[in-house]
Amino acid sequence: MCSSDLAASPQGVGRLGFTANSWASIAAPVLVLTGSADSSEGEQAAARRDPFRGMSGPDKYELYLDTPGSVHGLFSLGNEVPSQATLGPILASTGVAFMDAYLRDSAAARAWLTSNAVARWTGGIATLSVR
């Protein structure tokens, strides 16, 4: 087994000292969670995708929710926001699959992560990018 990391709505370039190279040396498997409405305190939602873009592979994943309900509070994984009931299960299921894949070394979970299952299940609201 190996270690893995789940980054829920990580900071983008230019915030809290993060640079374009801040994520380049991360070797562990990582799942980044973010979405089209994931902005906070002056940071645009697009910047929340910087960490995934800055990591080199392999074993890097980004779950992206393209919906107005993907507000920053959703990614605190416990904060009550109106979209928690509908979008929370997508975050939880993908997170469990990721942890099963890397902490339990589950071939079935890795296959799910690299399939198009989350996009089919959510009608395209969620996409899982892999490298």
Characteristics of this structure?
4 strands; alpha/beta; 131 residues
Give an overview in words.
The protein is α/β, with parallel strands linked by helices and 131 residues long. 29% of the residues lie in helices and 16% in strands. The model has no long low-confidence stretch (mean pLDDT 90).
Largest sheet: 4 strands, mixed
| H/E series | EEHEHHHE
Write down how many β-strands occur, each being a DSSP E stretch of 2 or more residues: 4
Rg from C-alpha positions? 14 Å
Strand order of the largest sheet: 1-2-3-4
Residue-averaged pLDDT, rounded?
90
Overall SS class: alpha/beta
Low-confidence stretches: none
Outline type: globular
Helix content: 25-40%
Number of helices: 4
Q: What distance separates the N and C termini?
A: 20 Å
Beta-strand content estimate = 15-25%
List the helices and strands and how they pair.
Layout: E1 5-8, E2 30-35, H1 50-54, E3 60-65, H2 84-103, H3 107-114, H4 117-121, E4 126-130
Parallel strand pairs: 1-2, 2-3
Antiparallel strand pairs: 3-4
Helix pairs in contact: 2-3
Task: Give a concise summary.
The protein is an alpha/beta fold.
